[in-house]
Design a protein that fits this description.
single chain, 290 residues, 36% strand, 6-stranded antiparallel beta sheet, 10-stranded mixed beta sheet, YegS/DAGK_C, alpha+beta
Length: 290
């Protein structure tokens, strides 16, 4: 029997087109799949569609078509341990595709057809009655304030440039307060912290070497320096391909992280809440096509 396959597609993604999706559908059908397409119309649809697929099928095969935000939405609708998940890169940054080494839509389709998969570990952030899963990273402090400060009109007009504009505003209205981070049996005073479930950050930049979607642990980047120039130095290191390292930065492994204070918190590029929050790993969450 043909293998049922649900494509959850974000039609506002940067490289989406109806003809492209039709071509993907034809390739999957020719390979013995029975594909169906659900187009999202709002920010909550991807999670709702994924939840419905899990309710209707014992072992759903779901393809998230869009950017990293679409993938995050799907992950937040899945029943843990039930689904096989694949990524179809139609977005702008597509960090997930870079982590998996997927260079094109055609390559993604070939991998879907091959069906080789590995257990995916994700993170769960909880605080102030909020519970949100993520697969790339969670950040509190500077990058949380940057994401919180992105204006909808600027994002619509400038795309990724809206984050740069927000970063400039965040630099101008500098918050020098520290916060306490508890992880791996130790307490640390940090200015910002990024809990990494993947090595890359913001595109092709490698922030946390050794972080992996398939390992039940995080690489935690604590920025201890509280000055603007500490962040400029870190940005230059990351841009040069050296990752997060050097004076004023501590990197370590953990499976649970408690973040104190009331700084802004983002996951996978979306503002969620202000601290305090607790973050833990959720291993064997789904099978991810590689």
């Amino acid at each position: 029997m043909p293998l049922s396959c649900t494509l959850i597609i974000n039609p506002t993604s940067g490289s989406y087109s109806a003809s492209l999706v039709d071509r993907v559908m034809a390739l999957l059908a020719a390979a013995g799949f029975s594909p169906s397409v659900l187009l999202t119309g709002g920010p909550d649809d991807a999670a709702a569609f994924a939840a419905r697929a899990c309710a209707e099928e014992d072992h759903p095969f779901i393809v998230a078509g869009g950017g990293d935000g679409t993938m995050n939405g799907v992950i937040n609708g899945l029943v843990p341990g039930k689904a096989t998940l694949a990524f179809l890169p139609l977005g702008t940054a597509n960090v997930c595709a870079r982590e998996l080494g997927i260079g094109s839509v055609d390559e993604a389709v070939r991998r879907i057809i091959r069906q080789e998969a590995r257990p995916l570990s994700v993170g769960v952030l909880e605080g102030f009655g909020v519970s949100r899963r993520f697969f790339l990273m969670a950040g509190a402090g500077f990058d949380g304030f940057v994401v919180e400060g992105v204006l909808g009109a600027e994002k619509k007009r400038f795309g990724k440039g809206a984050y740069l504009l927000s970063a400039l505003r965040t630099f101008s209205a500098w918050d020098g307060r520290p916060m306490e981070v508890e992880a791996a049996g130790e307490r640390r005073s940090c200015h910002s912290v990024i809990v990494c479930n993947a090595a890359r950050y913001g595109g092709s930049f490698v922030l946390a070497r050794g972080a992996s979607l398939f390992e039940p642990r995080f690489r935690v980047v604590c920025v201890e320096g509280r000055r603007r120039r500490d962040y400029l130095r870190l940005a230059l290191r990351v841009a040069a391909g050296r990752g997060a390292a050097g004076a004023g930065v501590t990197v370590f492994d953990a499976d649970t992280v408690a973040i104190g204070g009331n700084k802004a918190v983002q996951v996978d590029g979306d503002f969620i809440c202000h601290g305090p929050v607790t973050i833990r790993t959720l291993p064997d969450f789904a099978r991810l096509v590689v």
